[in-house]
Design a protein that fits this description.
DNA-binding; elongated; mainly alpha; homodimer; about 190 residues
DNA sequence: TTACGATACGGAACAATGTTCCGGTTATCA
DNA sequence: TGATAACCGGAACATTGTTCCGTATCGTAA
């Protein structure tokens, strides 16, 4: 593996320009902003975007990779730092929710079944699902959770609850996620 | 009110043809099927659709109006039939969830902030929110609910949990909604 | 330094879909 | 039956995703 030679210098520059431009545009117009808008912001053609990031999900993943990884690392850390696994799960979910709600439209995109966002769903699952599963298992073993819900279902549920226009003071995803977690403790 | 003369007979016929065609297409392709597809199924031009149903939400509302109204009527009935207001709320939510998950993409559309679906959100809220609020208030007064969540937030949360591809056996909205309702009883 | 092949670039071109608009048609009524 | 207002169909336009190819640039070897 690692076949193929390294990229050309201008290609590398463009990749960086694209990442910066995408981060900027995502902030303003959301993760489903038109490709042309990102291309214009970066000062490149649309072809260059597709060459570097074949699907939109690839671009989103690249932009938010650091933050996702931070969430991945937080799982085991919280589990070791805190007495209660359930409390660790709660704090980890807080991080996850914060991440989702601060990225305009990301939660919506994560569960979307169109526009080449499937890969995004897959990436998040691949990285975060094991972390969540560990937290869930630990809390269950500690007898702090009565439900037998699976990690996948829980994450999808949390992700779905985070969907919504931001700035809506009458809908706070955090309140609902808290209710959901409360529900884990048994009826 | 009721100003304006009655519609022409061909206009009425087309309206019926459109409702039947839309119901058919929604079943197969979901509520965000292309307008042209619905027009073709009905055997009319796209202009005719826009004349009868200016926004996509208007068409969706017209197609599902009966079922929404059934849900509206079920609220007070359950409340009077059952001893426990919380149980009434649970059963009513069951009806609501059944309705959402059996309509391909409806839950998704309800919270969408684009494509002229805002009116759909508004219609559902206008009809169902008071019903949900009554159930919630009754359950709270009966001391069966500890949370001080508002009806709007609860309905949005339930709606969001119902978003997802159907046929996914690993994600069951009903299980998550149950957890959410369990959470209402207090942590 | 220059020439050449590989690589990457930009944007035109095509496809899918939403939406508007208008010339022609039809229903209604006097 | 004829006038007219309402209505119809679909062409035309706008937006966005995606592909493709002629051209420009980079890296390298002579």
């Amino acid at each position: 593996m690692e076949a193929g030679r390294s990229k050309r210098s201008d290609a590398l520059r463009n990749e960086q320009k694209l990442l910066a431009a995408a981060a900027e545009v995502f902030l303003v117009s959301g993760v489903d902003a038109p490709i042309r808008e990102i291309a214009a912001q970066a000062g490149v053609g649309t072809g260059t975007i597709y060459r570097n990031f074949p699907t939109r999900a690839d671009l989103v993943v690249a932009v938010y990779r650091h933050q996702v990884e931070a969430c991945v690392e937080a799982g085991p850390r919280l589990l070791s730092e805190l007495e209660s696994p359930l409390e660790a799960l709660r704090q980890w979910v807080d991080l996850f929710v914060d991440f989702l709600v601060t990225k305009h439209g990301l939660a919506h995109a994560m569960q979307s079944d169109s526009s080449g966002f499937e890969a995004l769903h897959g990436y998040f699952l691949e990285r975060l699902l094991p972390v969540c599963a560990d937290l869930l298992t630990a809390a269950t073993k500690a007898g702090e959770i009565a439900s037998d819900i699976q990690a996948y279902e829980l994450m999808r549920g949390i992700g779905n609850l985070c969907i919504g226009r931001e700035g809506d003071t009458t809908y706070d995803p955090r309140r609902l996620v808290k209710l959901l977690l409360d529900g884990l403790q048994g009826s």
